[in-house]
Design goal:
The protein is of the alpha/beta class. Helices cover 32% and strands 16% of the residues.
């Protein structure tokens, strides 16, 4: 697998956001250690979402994005687990260092990604959620579809904005419909969405390409003080919320 050039070469932005949620400790230890998560959204919602941040981890633009998704389309209880024990990648580690960093810190199996996701799902379940979907940004979008490719996985849908590593091959085992919000920097995602639709899910995949947006604009590479990025970001919020509400409603959950 390879990253788009923009993922390797575009640094994070300076940004500010007053968080609407709070950090909590997951009830389940992961490999014997406590892990935290960022929880946001209406606490009486029965619809749960897992969000997987990009390699910059808890970035203000990403947290704003998650807060807004959690409040969209009637609201979701949303959990953003902390997958990186030592924090996200630094701008100094960009370029040739991105893939080695991901292999060391963001490997789906080696770094207990699925275990962390399931722990976050279980806490949402304890807090009253009866349906679950998962999405991520960049690397996180791949983690979402890998989680939704596991046997017995709990999700109704997966996907996310400006996905990294998305291909017909990487989504061949996904067990749910997918939402793909591509930027101008990703390859054509229409064949990928079509390959998932060929599985015959009741809900069709959703695909939209933001031709005026760069890779990472909803997360660590986004600057929502730029009106164009903010407008596209809010549209992505709306598309995600609508899609996840739709799959929950279709499942009567």
């Amino acid at each position: 697998m390879s990253l788009v050039d923009a993922c390797c070469n575009t640094p994070s932005t300076e940004a500010h956001w007053h968080n609407k949620g709070e950090y909590q400790t997951l009830s389940t230890k992961i490999a014997g250690e406590d892990r935290k998560t960022y929880r946001t959204g209406p606490k009486d919602s029965k619809r749960g979402l897992i969000a997987v941040y990009d390699i910059f981890a808890y970035h203000p633009t990403g947290l704003q994005f998650f807060d807004r998704v959690a409040q969209s389309h009637g609201g979701f209880q949303l959990s953003v687990p902390d997958f990186f024990k030592n924090g996200g990648i630094t701008n100094e580690q960009m370029g040739a260092g991105v893939m080695p960093w991901i292999q060391e810190n963001g490997d789906f199996k080696k770094n207990h990604i699925y275990e962390i996701i399931l722990a976050a799902v279980e806490d949402l379940r304890k807090d009253g959620c009866t349906s679950f979907s998962i999405f991520g940004q960049c690397w996180g979008a791949l983690m979402s579809v890998l989680a939704a490719s596991q046997e017995g996985q709990p999700f109704l849908a997966a996907g996310g904005p400006h996905p990294s590593f998305f291909s017909i091959e990487t989504l061949k085992d996904v067990k749910v419909p997918v939402i793909i919000l591509a930027s101008k920097d990703e390859a054509d995602m229409i064949p990928v969405a079509a390959s998932v639709d060929a599985k015959g899910f009741a809900i069709k995949c959703f695909h939209k390409r933001y031709e005026n947006m760069h890779h990472g604009w909803t997360g660590g590479r986004g600057d929502w003080t730029v009106a164009e990025q903010r407008e596209a970001g809010l549209d992505a919020v709306d598309q995600l919320g609508a899609f996840f509400a739709k799959v929950a409603e279709a499942s009567n959950l």
